[in-house]
Design goal:
The chain is α/β, with parallel strands linked by helices and 339 residues long. Helices cover 30% and strands 19% of the residues. The strands form 2 sheets. Strands 1, 2, 3, 4, 5, 6, 7, 8, 9, 10, 11 and 12 form a 12-stranded mixed β-sheet that branches. A 4-stranded parallel β-sheet has the order 14-15-13-16, sandwiched between helices. The structure holds threonylcarbamoyladenylate and magnesium ion.
């Protein structure tokens, strides 16, 4: 299959129109959102959904997020929507925030991988919302990477993973957030954080004071265990390098990697000068948003540069740091060393 490249700087209108047409006709297109690039298909077309699973090599039991552009569309896709979900929508949409609600049965069951719930997000990126407006259909869109590899934050990453397997890619800008959306299961009397993102636990607590945190966010999935979010049980974001997540103060991290002297260091910018091995600084020590922006780009770079082993200085688990920690602990296959 030839993957068409659709440009925004030269002919935005035409690219949006073409994307909407391909999607309405059952095709699959990668396009930017503010979090990561998504691989979109009509959420109403089971053949198109099948193509998405195939192109990504995604396990059949891992459901997709449905992207919408209005509360009207939300009401079509979900049913029995609790009042607190509307409050969240008001506060966090459009944006990097996904709610898991009861499915109305409007989107095809393959989207929800057979569950009776549906994950819904209203993205902020104007390209995605213009495409939804033009196609007038909700779009199912997982991250546009091959299953298991780091999520794509640029059109180049999408092309590396999916060129020749999808109908088109919209050649947009680099994603501004850099990690996938926050996913929250919202029920009438309870709420659970399933995946941390740029909408932080602290922000969520203002509307959902009783929110709990799914244990899969920080702990390893054990075979056979029941999970609230199927995506969390899969090996993920994993570069081929053997990575270790190191928790501790800067001075201890620096002396640890210098002493080991057998792998690179994914460190904070402040530590770079003190480290003797090859460094991949992924952000300033207090700039968790900056770390989120860089992290997938750097994980991909490790593979490109054929890095075999590395030590990652763990971020703190507050604010957006929880999202970065979650992606890193999985990239490290839960090998955590506390100094
Ligand atoms: O930022 C994002 O969310 C990006 C962009 C493209 O919107 N999308 C994305 O999709 O990250 P994906 O498929 O890579 O991740 C979706 C996550 C998975 O962990 C999946 O298990 C979970 O959402 N999910 C989807 N539907 C669910 C459901 N009904 N119940 C529980 N978890 C669900
Ligand atoms: Mg993904």
């Amino acid at each position: 299959m030839i993957t068409e490249k659709l440009y925004l700087d030269t002919d935005r209108e035409e690219s949006v129109k073409k994307t909407a047409e391909i999607l309405k006709n059952g095709g699959i297109v990668a396009l930017p959102t503010e979090t990561v690039y998504g691989l979109a298909a009509s959420a109403l077309d089971k053949n198109a959904i099948k193509k998405v699973f195939e192109a990504k090599g995604r396990p059949q039991d891992n459901p997709l997020i449905v992207h919408i552009n209005s509360i009207e569309m939300l009401k079509k896709v979900a049913k029995d929507i609790p009042k607190r979900a509307f409050l969240c929508a008001e506060k966090f949409w459009p944006g990097p925030f996904t709610m898991v609600l009861k499915s109305s049965g409007y989107v095809c069951s393959a989207v929800s991988a057979g569950l009776d719930t549906v994950a819904v997000r209203m993205p902020k990126d104007p390209v995605m919302s213009d495409v939804i407006a033009r196609a007038e259909i909700p779009l199912a869109a997982p991250s546009a990477n091959v299953s298991g590899s780091p999520s794509p934050v640029s059109a180049e990453h999408v092309i590396n993973d999916l060129y020749g397997k999808i109908d088109a890619v919209v050649m947009g800008d680099r994603c501004s957030v850099g990690v996938e959306s926050t996913v929250v299961l919202i029920e009438k009397d309870s709420a659970k954080l399933l995946r941390p993102g740029a909408v932080t636990l602290e922000m969520l607590k203002e509307i959902l004071p009783d929110i709990t945190v799914d244990k899969a966010i920080l702990e390893e999935y054990k075979d056979g265990e029941k999970v609230a979010s199927p995506g969390m049980k899969y090996k993920h974001y994993s570069p081929s390098a053997e990575l270790y997540l190191i928790e501790g103060e800067s001075k201890d991290f620096v002396s640890y990697v210098n002493k080991m002297n057998d792998g690179c260091a994914l460190c904070f910018t402040e530590e770079e000068e003190l480290i003797k091995v090859k460094t991949y600084p992924y952000g300033s020590i207090n700039d968790q948003k900056g770390m989120a922006y860089e992290i997938f780009e750097i994980l991909r770079r490790l593979d490109k540069e054929k890095i075999r082993k590395g030590y990652v200085h763990a971020p703190s688990k507050d604010g957006v740091g929880l999202a970065v920690y979650n992606r890193l602990v999985r990239a490290c296959a839960h090998r955590v060393i506390k100094l």
